[in-house]
């Protein structure tokens, strides 16, 4: 059984690095405002296996760096993290949640009701599109 919990910011870094930017130096995955965020981890057999980070401004939330360990992708962990995150945002009475989605993952977000905007850009070798969910 997988369990989602709020976690200390620095616990996200190892998973982000392995799942998202393994070819970059470890420090590359640290965000300058990580310590202002709210971070969630999903544990499988007590092992941290996926993470996501939430940053709020007023009643709008941005989530960043959703990442599941490569060996455990495709087993529903990302979905469980997203559902937890969306419920958390609703409980906090946020009205909107958005993210910079990697284009190759955008269909994943559509499954949760996110819609694509016309804001796109390329960074660090990936194409991104801003996706939004009205809560
Ligand atoms: C994207 C990611 C977080 C998804 O997590 P996951 O645990 O592998 O996904 P799940 O197993 O929970 O998948 C849930 C559903 O989304 C689908 N899905 C998963 N990844 C997808 C992708 N990249 N594109 C489209 N659909 C995807 C699954 O097929 C599944 O569909 P179903 O419910 O119809 O069976 C994970 O693959 C990952 O960490 N990837 C590398 C880092 C990354 O790209 N992060 C996102 C940056 S925007």
From TrEMBL:
SUPFAM superfamilies, per database record: Acyl-CoA N-acyltransferases (Nat)
Keywords: Acyltransferase, Transferase
A Pfam family this chain is assigned to: Acetyltransf_10
Domain of life where this protein originates: Bacteria
Residue ranges constituting the N-acetyltransferase domain according to the UniProt record: 1-135
PROSITE patterns from the UniProt entry: GNAT (PS51186)
Protein name: GNAT family N-acetyltransferase
